[in-house]
Input
Amino acid sequence: MTVYALAQLTVHDRARYDRYVAAFLPVLARHGGRLLAADTAPRVVEGDWPHDKVVLMSFDRREDFERWSTSPEYRAISRDREAATEGVVLLLDGIGHAWPA
Output
């Protein structure tokens, strides 16, 4: 089942985050991930949103996400993201046969 990774980030070290971004897409693609959206100015339609950027990715299976997120090549570049940002990353299951829950 498709899974989605949703990152909500506040960037406090732009140079280091930009270095991460420059290496991100090739690593994501090599592991079967797809970048669906990346927005530095999402329109908040309800509630408060304290971050600078939102990123949405998809993977065919949870195992594909886990393989990507724990791979040596992603771990090497993710050090820059972890040092340059604060935020959360959520992993969401796609809607399957159990809808509505």
Remarks:
- The radius of gyration is 14 Å.
- The first helix runs from residue 14 to 30.
- The chain has a mean pLDDT of 94.
- Helices lie at 14-30, 62-70, 72-84.
